[in-house]
Amino acid sequence: MLIYLIxxxxxxxxxxxxxxxxxxxxxxxxxxxxPPVTAHVSxxxxxxxxxPEIFTSEGGIPRILQIYLKALCDLAQPADAVRLLxxxxxxxxxxxxxxxxxxxxxxxxxxxxxKIRFILDTLRMSRGCDRIVxxxxxxxxxxxxxxxxNPRLRYYLVxxxxxxxxxxxxxxxxxxxxxxxxxCVSDYTRRQLLHHCPLPEGQTVILPNALDPFFHIAQxxxxxxxxxxxLVVTRLTRSDxxxxxxxxxMAMPAILAKVPGATLRIIGRGDDFGYLHSLRDRLGLxxxxxxxxxxxxxxxxxxxxxxxxxxxxxxxEGFGLVFLEAMANGRPCLxxxxxxxxxxxxxxxxxxxxFGDVPNIAETAVSALQRDWxxxxxxxxxxxxSYAPFKDRLASLLEL
Length: 400
Prior knowledge:
The chain has helices at residues 2-6, 60-75, 94-100, 115-125, 140-149, 170-178, 187-196, 245-258, 273-282, 297-306, 321-327, 358-370, 375-383, 387-398, and strands at residues 46-51, 81-86, 105-110, 131-134, 154-159, 181-184, 204-206, 229-233, 263-267, 289-293, 309-312, 333-336, 350-353. By secondary structure, the chain is of the alpha/beta class. It folds into two domains: 2-210 and 386-398, Rossmann fold (3-Layer(aba) Sandwich), CATH 3.40.50; 223-383, Glycogen Phosphorylase B (Rossmann fold). The strands form two sheets. The protein has a seven-stranded parallel sheet with strand order 3-2-1-4-5-6-7, sandwiched between helices. It has a six-stranded parallel sheet with strand order 10-9-8-11-12-13, with helices on both faces. Helix 8 (245-258) packs across helix 12. It is elongated, with a radius of gyration of 22 Å.
C-alpha cells in the first residue's frame, strides 16, 4: 500500500492548480502556530486534516479545504486540538493560518510534494488522534495505513467531484470501505462514487460546499443598471476544456445579434490561453471578448458585482463553488445541466443549458440577460450555503 502511495503520478492529480502570484514568504517549518492548547492538560480529542494543498493555489478544492480547517478549529473544544498536513505546499503564510485557524491548531507541517515525507508525517502526526479528515481520495490509503497502526482511529473522506467519478484501484476500494463516512459535495458525486464502489447505506452522506465565512453576501450593482456583461471565472488550461469557455466564446456572435453591446469578460490563466485567444480573433470578437488574466480578490469582487450574468457551462463540476460566489453578489448564473451544478442553480438563481450546445447556450444567455431577476431570491440562495449551517452539519457528521 505504501508503495502505491509513493508511486502516485502528479499528472493524475486533478486538484493541482495554477500557483498564486506573488510567491509567499518562506516560513520555517515545522513549527507551532500557537503555544500548546493547555499547559497541563493533554487534548481530549485530536483531528488531523490531510490536504493535497491548501494555500498555494487558487482552485476550488484548496478553498473549500480552508473552510474545513476553519470549521474544525472553530468546533474544537478548549481541551481539543487540530493538526494540519499538506502534501504540495512548500510554504505557509502565517496570515493565512490566522485567517483559517485559531489556537486549537497545535501543529502543522508541509511536505513540498515529497510523498514519502507525507506518508511518514501522516503516520507520526496521527498518533494520539481520534480522527483523520482526508481532503482528497488519493490520500485515503495512507489514512488506512494509519488506522492499521492505531485501530481506534477513524478516518473520513471529502469527495469533491471528478476524482471519484471513475473506477477505483483495489487499494482505493479497500480504503474507501474502511472510511467512517464519505462526505460528498453533491448527490451526483455520491451516486457516481457508489456506482464505481458500492458501499453500505449511510456510509456516504451529502455535505454541500459552503461560502467562506469572510465572504460578504450583499447585493451588487442593481442588475437593471449593469451593462450586458457576461463574466466567466475559471482556469484556462487544456485539461480543463470541459469548463466550456470555448463554447461561451462561440456563442457570442448569436448573443450580439440579439443583445448589441454585450461583452464576455474572462478571468483566469493557463496553457489554453493561446487557443482561446485565437478562437476569439477568428470569430472577429476582439471588441466583444476580453481576457483579464489573474485578478486579485478586490478586482474579482468588483467584476462580480458589476456583471449582469455569470456563466460557466461546465460538464464536470462536482459542485461549483464559484456559482455561490456569484450569487452572493446577487448575480444570476448560467451553468450546464451536468454534474452537481443543477443542485446549486435553481430557477430563481439562474439558468441551465446543455453542455456543448452552442445555439442553446446563446439563446439561454440572451434570455438571462433580458430577464427581470429577483436579486433578493438570488442572495437567499447564496445564504443557503453559508458557513454556519455547514459547520453545524460537519459537527454532526464527525460527532464533534
